[in-house]
Amino acid sequence: PPRLAGRGLVKHFGPTAALAGVDLEIGEGESLAITGPSGSGKSTLMHVLAGIQVPDAGVVTLRGRQVQGFSERQRSVLRRGRYGFVFQHGQLLSELTALENVAVAAMLDGEPRADAEHLARQWLARLGLAGCAQRRPGELTAGEAQRVAVARALVTHPDVVFADEPTGSLDHATGYEVMRLIVATTRDVEAALVVVTQDPRVAAWCDHSVELRDGRVVPAPAAAPVPDLA
Ligand code: ADP
Ligand code: ADP
Q1: pLDDT (tens digit per residue) in 158-206
Q2: For the chain, what is the radius of gyration of the CA atoms?
Q3: Whose CA is nearest to atom 13 of ligand 2?
Q4: What pLDDT is stored for residue 99 in this prediction?
Q5: 3-state helix, strand, coil in the chain (%, to 5)
Q6: Residue 211 φ/ψ, nearest 5 degrees
Q7: Complex ipTM
Q8: Residue 147: Cβ-neighbour burial (10 angstroms; 0-12, 13-18, 19+)
Q9: Which end of the chain is more exposed for a tag (fewer CB within 10 A), N or C?
Q10: Confidence band for 138, pLDDT divided at 50, 70 and 90
Q11: Nearest CA, atom 26, ligand 1
Q12: 156-169 residues labelled b (16+ CB within 10 A) or e (exposed)
């Protein structure tokens, strides 16, 4: 089965159909960009795929297992350990150091403190942030903070990484570097990657992309060449 799939996904907010019947799947270790104009349903689709919102109709499967069959408690465990999240604004805890921000994610996933800190150090180093471990978010550049958020998303070795406009608050060069790291590191750990983005350059980094319009998938444009990762 695919790593993650949605079939017949429908989600209404009052009279608004945020999702009007969406089918998609993401293969093992693949990346998918979700694009489309503001209000087209991108965030809702990501939230439904991630089990944060429950669809009115349709099913989401993770490795062939229906996520809706899970209790809220099981879904919460899933979000904590099997899924990693990167948001537009890193949403790091401002009172904690970069190291602690990453280590806390591993501890919530059940790692003892010493192991969590060891893993956090490894991930910070892997993202070029060894020198930032003891800094608080206020002492990091926007690009560094976003790379800490990537480390935090990956430290639990998730099955799927969800990134919502991960480069949205970064300048072009910094966004490019962050996106390169997200794609390379999720590939390294064989996580699938779902990226919500309005930026066609970001979408071009992904293996596949779907475009939403009024809660439906529109036929994708011809595949853009994938930039060389080397
Ligand atoms: P996008 O991420 O593409 O901007 P959204 O998924 O946020 O789109 O929204 C899709 C549609 O659903 C929009 O019309 C939005 O206003 C509506 N919507 C999303 N979430 C809610 C909500 N919690 N309550 C009411 N309407 C919502
Ligand atoms: P994005 O910039 O990612 O598209 P939005 O600004 O559309 O995000 O939505 C941010 C949050 O607000 C989401 O959780 C979405 O579900 C919710 N939301 C969006 N539209 C509405 C709405 N019309 N009423 C209430 N909540 C909404």
Answers
A1: 999 999 999 988 999 999 999 999 999 999 999 999 999 988 888 888 9
A2: 17
A3: 43
A4: 98
A5: 40, 25, 35
A6: -110, 130
A7: 0.68
A8: buried
A9: C
A10: very high
A11: 13
A12: bebbbbbbbbbbbb
Indicate the pTM of the whole model.
0.85
Q: What distance in angstroms lies between residue 195's CA and the mean position of ligand 2's atoms?
A: 17
**What amino acid is encoded at 188 in this protein?**
D
Is residue 122 within 6 Å of ligand 2 at its C-beta?
no
| Encoded tokens for 83 | 């899924």
Burial 174-198 (b: 16+ CB within 10 A, else e): bbbbbbebbbebbbeeebbbbbbbe
91 ligand 2 Cβ < 6 A: no
Centroid of ligand 1 to alpha carbon of 18 (angstroms): 6
Q: 68 or 230: which carries more pLDDT confidence?
A: 68
Residue 28 and residue 192 in contact, taking contact as beta carbons nearer than 8 Å = yes
Mutate which of 43, 169, 197 for ligand 2? The one with the most ligand atoms within 8 Å of its CB, which is 43
Can you read off the two tokens belonging to residue 103? 């280590």
Which of ligand 2's atoms lies nearest the C-alpha of 164? 3
Residue 127's nearest CA partner among 52, 63, 179 is 179
